Fold:
Amino acid sequence: MKIYNTLSKSKEEFTPIEPGKVRMYVCGPTVYNLIHIGNARPMIVFDTVRRYFEYKGYDVNYVSNFTDVDDKIIKRAIEEGVTASDISTKYIAECKKDMDGMNVLPATTTPLATEEIGGMINMIQTLIDKGYAYDKNGTVYYRSRKFKDYGKLSHKNLDDLRSGERNLLVSGKDEKEDPLDFVLWKPKKEGEPSWPSPWGDGRPGWHIECSEMSCKYLGTEIDIHAGGEDLVFPHHENEIAQSEAANGTNFARYWMHNAFLNIDNVKMSKSLGNFKTVRDISEKYDLGVLRFFMLSAHYRSPLNFTAELMESSKKSLERIKNAVSNLDFLMSKTDVKDLTDSEKELLAETDKFFQDFDNAMDDDFNTADAVTAIFEFVKFANINSDDSKSKEYLEELKKKILTLTNVLGLVVEEEKDTLDAHIEDLIKERTDAKKAKDFSKADEIRNKLLEMGIEISDTREGVKWKRI
Ligand code: AMP
Ligand code: ZN
Structure:
């Protein structure tokens, strides 16, 4: 399996630190608003990376945080007259709803920055003790030039570098020994959340959060660290400087970064008014369509969001769904039970779709080609199935398609599930009515099911149903 590593700017063969295991950390969102569709891209992409590793038999320890203390959260809290924690708690819950809708698996651990302050303070202290950090009137800075590898991820030359602005705009800015130095701890400002520390009350800088949480939950060296490409510098560059200086080990072996999502070929921004939240999309589409749309491009290619592409994603996803429901339908029609020799041959032919799928995913998670392999499979299934085929064959075909769609996190039989649940409920209601000797109600339910195209029969094993 090959992964493009931002560190080496090339595709490298993946070798885990511990055989059979993957430890990965994905920088999570800052929770001060509903997440937008740009934030959804790393969530979907790296969830798919995780799913593919799991499909390949790896045990994946997937850690993704929520940044729940930050200038933007505090600003929003002040605007609304509530606490920062009210804001972050609310938007973490909303984000989880969106992630669920996009079928993003819950992380193995989802740490919150505010619950890990003690560990961050210890890490900052270690950096001070080792001479990599210094305190100036309650602000602790990282001495970037002291870390000899500074710039190795972003491939920037130290002298060309201008430190990122995100966490530098704090009091004491002018006290820095060097403009490249960045903040590890910032002093408390009136009305802001703060924690006690050896350098006075304050709060951690953004970068130290991820260094600490990654180390705490995954160990000093991890396999994969990931996020959007805007995080390469300064965030990930600074994480490397902190973690490697504090722990004395290599931090992450593979650095993965997704490209940006634009809207109608323009950068998404609030001021342009082209800003779309995942929630906005969910009003018009099942979020599975958004997931499909994201995976239809390679994660390192910029992706352009348009109404037309969403419509065509919807149609494409429906093609897979229809093939699956057609197999269900044929299964309910056929009387043939056992697999024939020619069916065995047809099933063996489907190995090629798995190979194509794996080849695509092994090539730095080329989900676009993996989707193509699924479509080839769907075409094959449509051509090679009818009600003269055995149940077992049809069932196998369906199972195989679902194995692949599941790796991409695409739900292709959801409607049937909801329908099934409804049918089961009605059948139970009818059984209860019969037990209570309310036969007219039982008949009424049987007729209602018939109207829905469902025929039930009472057998020794219980009530069975099929589509007619
Ligand atoms: P933030 O909440 O700004 O820290 O962002 C959370 C994650 O979303 C990070 O991995 C960002 O790189 C990523 N991200 C933000 N905007 C976009 C975008 N337009 N396209 C792709 N990824 C994005
Ligand atoms: Zn991070």
